[in-house]
Amino acid sequence: MAQGPGDDVDLDIHAADAYERGPCIWSRLRERDGLVHSPRHGGFYVAARHEDALKVLMTPAVFGSGKGITLPPPGGIRSFHIPAEIDPPLHGEYRALMQPLLDGPHARALEPAIGEIARGLIAGIPDDEPFDFVRVFARPLPILVALDIMRIDRSHAGELEQMVEDLHREVATGAPTGAAERLRIFAEDVIAQRRWTLSDADDDVVASILRGQVEGRALSAAEQMSMVRQILVGGFDTTSIALATMMKWLAENPDEAARLRADPVAIDAASEEIVRFASPSTYLRREVMAPTELAGTPLQVGDSVLVAFAAANRDPAKFACPESIDARRKPNMHVGFGAGRHRCVGSFVAKAQMRVAFTELLDRFEGFALEAEPPITYSSGLGQGIMSMTMRFHRRAG
Question: Which pTM value belongs to this model?
Fold first, then answer.
């Protein structure tokens, strides 16, 4: 039976201690019969078991994204993200303009550029001195890669990072920051500049959006802006959290660092396990589109269901020893990148960044150590994970 508003499982994803409290709450959510209901943000049910989360993700006709995937929903803060907040079948037409240019072969083709960015960031890491790994490496890498993918000058990295951080804060708190409007203007400027220089030879994702059609018509200016904005904001936090979580694990497990240094091919499997364990996309919302039942709980049209990816990825009914990182885990059917038609369109690019980043880091450093002070800090909200982490690296001789 679903739990009512008075239930003692109080899931507040935007609380300052949401990350630290997460594992305990996720366990209790999975153990309850049916779906736990929270009265927060207008009320929502939580899909915390792997089986339930997968059913929601794989049934978009019943659990839709078209009313917004954030909690609270975007409301008047911003327009909807395309294609993330578009339901099938139209979702597939929008996604087809992006996916072929972000697939496995294209991600592999990006690796030389990713390597060049990573080496430049590594050059700024001091030897045997404390530094914040997130601010120096894990955060800037995905921002710079995204700018390269969209052929935007890297000098905009700081500006873009601040806008994304402000937008997340505005969605979480409702406090106006102006970030949504600044991002809209930024995306429109990207489109306007590319429109003037667009050539038949251009085959990048922005060019595809500019030439794109859905339902037999050209995309409107608003649609183009939304798609560009989606790429700009979609992968910064998640990739940064995954990079930081893997670095923390390597610092705590030097034998694993030595193994991956000797066998870089194994970095891919380790990265998949880190995405499972970290679940950087920690929560996303769906809205019930037709009367249904999930885990014995009846759901009505308009009900919100929060998919708890992190809880699902640590479900002992699906994963052995789920609270431990096992870099050799097989199979690893995690939902860290989502599942179904809305599976993360940038997952191949994210994995390429992890592969290249740790190949470079392991090649250049022989020791990684966590500093006790200041302590690691964690973010709250839809994407939870390491936000700052002070470390000390020791470079390899030669």
Answer: 0.95
pLDDT digits 0-9 by tens, 43-77: 999 999 999 999 999 999 999 999 999 988 877 66
Only one residue has tokens 């366990």, namely 27
Q: List, for residues 126-173, the tens digit of each pLDDT value.
A: 999 999 999 999 999 999 999 999 999 999 999 999 998 888 777 667
Is the CB of residue 146 less than 8 Å from the CB of residue 156? Answer: no
Contact (Cβ atoms closer than 8 angstroms) between residue 114 and residue 356: yes
Q: What is the CA radius of gyration of the chain?
A: 21
Instruction: Give the CB-side neighbour count of residue 183, counting CA atoms within 13 A.
Output: 29
Residue 325 makes CB contacts below 8 A (sequence gap 6+) with 249, 273, 274, 277
Distance between CA 172 and CA 170 in Å, rounded?
Answer: 5
pLDDT on residue 278 = 98
Stretches where the chain sits below pLDDT 70 are 1-8, 76-77, 171-172, 398
Cα–Cα distance, 259 to 266 (Å, whole number): 8
How many angstroms separate the Cα of 6 from the Cα of each of 15, 39, 42, 120, 304?
18, 9, 15, 52, 18
Cα separation, 301 vs 322, whole angstroms = 34
The 10 Å Cβ neighbour count of residue 195 is 12
What pLDDT score was predicted for residue 8? 56
What pLDDT is attached to residue 5? 40
The reported pLDDT for the residue numbered 2 is: 44
CA 67/CA 62 separation, integer angstroms: 13
Q: Domains of the chain (ranges plus CATH)?
A: 18-395 (1.10.630.10)
Phi-psi label, residue 216: left if phi above 0, alpha if psi -120 to 50, beta otherwise: left
Q: How far apart are CA 205 and CA 149, in angstroms?
A: 7
**Farthest CA pair distance, the chain:** 65
DSSP string, 249-316: HHHH-HHHHHHHHH-GGGHHHHHHHHHHHH-SS-EEEEEE-S-EEETTEEE-TT-EEEEEHHHHTT-T
